[in-house]
UniProtKB/TrEMBL annotation:
It comes from Solirubrobacter ginsenosidimutans. InterPro entries: ICL/PEPM (IPR039556), Pyrv/PenolPyrv_kinase-like_dom (IPR015813), Pyrv_kinase-like_dom_sf (IPR040442). This is Isocitrate lyase/phosphoenolpyruvate mutase family protein. One of its GO terms (molecular function) is lyase activity. Pfam families: PEP_mutase. Keywords: Lyase.
Length: 263
């Protein structure tokens, strides 16, 4: 059941935070509804993470904050209410909510943690780093004032658009200084973990991990090293993001195609 009080929610936050261990990463196969969240728990994983791609799709919307915040957070609440482990919510870029309102909504949903992106989806570009760090600091402050030990995973989106555009690993070296600048600003703002989504090349990733002072989350991209190698690099958290959702839908499509074959 969803935590009904801070006395129930705080231990889930603390457990989630404690599982961020560099070299022994927390594995997060992302879920998109209560059924998939329960499957994650049944498979033995200690935490459920949501994927905004899958959640938005089940609600009939595209990703990147096209779904209403109340619908996305309502889905998060149902997921948190369906399992007894910590749930970390992909809250996209915060739905243009003020920090106190976002924290209140996440707390009401029973979220032990959240992902927060530094992409301004309305403008189609990255947020100004100083303004975003100030906003993240406000999220931390609002959570602290509510005695809510929310685990904040700050996404650093510097590598994301170039990766989607097909940029090769050499580009990751070029983008590393800006990614490190953003990560450090967010750590100083009080986040618990940083997530350079799209960073997959081993050497830039090693340098990123060595130079930041917080646990690092990476996405299990097809071109990324396997989990054992990521662990050896010092990664503390590995997310599958939307890939399990994509695989599930592809399998569903194959099954439907087989049903449509002539008898």
């Amino acid at each position: 059941m969803r935590p009904s009080s801070d006395a129930e929610l705080s231990p889930r936050c603390d457990l989630l935070r404690s599982l961020h261990r560099p070299g022994a990463p927390l594995l997060l196969p992302n879920a998109w509804d209560v059924a998939t969240a329960k499957a994650v728990v049944a498979a033995g994983f200690p935490v459920v993470a949501t994927t905004s791609v899958g959640v938005a799709a089940t609600l009939g919307y595209d990703d990147h904050e096209h779904a209403p915040a109340e619908a996305m957070l309502g889905a998060a609440a149902r997921i948190a209410g369906g399992v007894t482990v910590p749930v970390t919510v992909d809250a996209e870029a915060g739905y243009r909510m003020q920090p106190a309102a976002l924290v209140s909504a996440l707390r009401s949903a029973g979220a032990a943690g959240c992902n927060l992106e530094d992409t301004d989806h309305a403008a189609g570009k990255l947020h100004d780093v100083d303004r975003h760090a100030e906003w993240l600091s406000g999220v931390r402050q609002a959570a602290s004032e509510a005695s809510y030990p929310l685990v904040i995973n700050a996404r650093v989106d510097v590598f994301f658009a170039p990766m989607l555009a097909g940029a090769g690993p050499e580009t990751q070296d070029e983008l590393l200084p800006e990614a490190l600048r953003r990560a450090q600003a967010y750590i100083e703002a009080g986040v618990d973990c940083v997530y350079p989504v799209g960073l997959y090349a081993a050497e830039p990733l090693r340098r990123f991990i060595a130079e930041v002072s917080a646990p690092v989350n990476v996405a299990r991209l097809p071109q990324a090293p396997p989990p054992a190698e990521l662990a050896a690099l010092g990664v503390a958290r590995i997310s599958w993001g939307p890939f399990l959702y994509f695989d599930a839908m592809a399998h569903f499509g194959e099954q439907l195609a087989s049903l449509a074959e002539p008898v």
